[in-house]
Amino acid sequence: ITATIEKDLWASGTVNEEYLKALNSLFSNFPRLRATEPATLSIPHLVTSLKTGSEACQEAALDSLFLLRQAWSACPAEVSRAQSIAAADAIPFLQYLIQSGPPRFQEKAEFLLQCLPGTLVVIIKRGNNMKQSVGNPSVYCKITLGNNPPRLTKVVSTGPNPEWDESFSWSFESPPKGQKLHISCKNKSKVGKSKFGKVTIQIDRVVMLGAVAGEYTLLPASKSGPPRNLEIEFQWSNKAADPTSETV
């Protein structure tokens, strides 16, 4: 069946939904098949069908991926890892289904997404209102995620609204559940305050949405003048992390 699906994709770019339903039926009725090499080899075709097929094809492909995922806890570790890596190509489309797909797709899409390896990218864009009474501050950010070593932005000395536009990435075997990102904004200048504040951000939401951006207020709050904040963007995807990233 996998060979037939592959032939269909090469010939027309689409798959007959009956082939997908037959594959789903096999996985459903013969659970041991889910841990086999042919099952692993079918995943790229299931992902392609999920991305490009009709709604009926998408549903059959999603059902098959869901059944495979259910078996990972009982599979040999190398099998579940190979299958999860292959299925990670579906991350962007699963995020789309959660936000815009048919309601009946959403629960299975969420279940799959919560188990696939991916990359978290944090982009520190700029800071606002980093003022001090004398001179320009030399501002940088310290980013800490879990027990990983802290990461630092460059030091910027161009006034109260420093711009970094720096990205930092971490690769995960599975999405970070309940983890918090801690970002502190500091002044390296010998003049003025040494710290502008910090912010703690729960990062679970970005896994489902794909990208989240906003302004985050630093605490403690400024006693005079407007609040100090950081403009930050978060991304979760199946894209390979840059060579300086860390694996979690």
From TrEMBL:
<dbReference type="InterPro" id="IPR035892">
    <property type="entry name" value="C2_domain_sf"/>
</dbReference>
<dbReference type="GO" id="GO:0008017">
    <property type="term" value="F:microtubule binding"/>
</dbReference>
<dbReference type="GO" id="GO:0072699">
    <property type="term" value="P:protein localization to cortical microtubule cytoskeleton"/>
</dbReference>
<keyword id="KW-0472">Membrane</keyword>
<dbReference type="GO" id="GO:0055028">
    <property type="term" value="C:cortical microtubule"/>
</dbReference>
<keyword id="KW-0961">Cell wall biogenesis/degradation</keyword>
<dbReference type="InterPro" id="IPR000008">
    <property type="entry name" value="C2_dom"/>
</dbReference>
<keyword id="KW-0206">Cytoskeleton</keyword>
<dbReference type="GO" id="GO:0008360">
    <property type="term" value="P:regulation of cell shape"/>
</dbReference>
<keyword id="KW-0341">Growth regulation</keyword>
<keyword id="KW-0677">Repeat</keyword>
<keyword id="KW-1003">Cell membrane</keyword>
<dbReference type="GO" id="GO:0009653">
    <property type="term" value="P:anatomical structure morphogenesis"/>
</dbReference>
<dbReference type="GO" id="GO:0009664">
    <property type="term" value="P:plant-type cell wall organization"/>
</dbReference>
<dbReference type="InterPro" id="IPR011989">
    <property type="entry name" value="ARM-like"/>
</dbReference>
<keyword id="KW-0963">Cytoplasm</keyword>
<protein>
    <submittedName>
        <fullName>C2 domain-containing protein</fullName>
    </submittedName>
</protein>
<dbReference type="InterPro" id="IPR044297">
    <property type="entry name" value="CSI1/2/3"/>
</dbReference>
<dbReference type="GO" id="GO:0051211">
    <property type="term" value="P:anisotropic cell growth"/>
</dbReference>
<keyword id="KW-0217">Developmental protein</keyword>
<dbReference type="GO" id="GO:0010330">
    <property type="term" value="C:cellulose synthase complex"/>
</dbReference>
<dbReference type="GO" id="GO:0009832">
    <property type="term" value="P:plant-type cell wall biogenesis"/>
</dbReference>
<dbReference type="GO" id="GO:2001006">
    <property type="term" value="P:regulation of cellulose biosynthetic process"/>
</dbReference>
<dbReference type="InterPro" id="IPR016024">
    <property type="entry name" value="ARM-type_fold"/>
</dbReference>
<keyword id="KW-0133">Cell shape</keyword>
<dbReference type="GO" id="GO:0005886">
    <property type="term" value="C:plasma membrane"/>
</dbReference>
<feature type="domain" description="C2">
    <location>
        <begin position="99"/>
        <end position="216"/>
    </location>
</feature>
<dbReference type="GO" id="GO:0030244">
    <property type="term" value="P:cellulose biosynthetic process"/>
</dbReference>
<dbReference type="Pfam" id="PF00168">
    <property type="entry name" value="C2"/>
</dbReference>
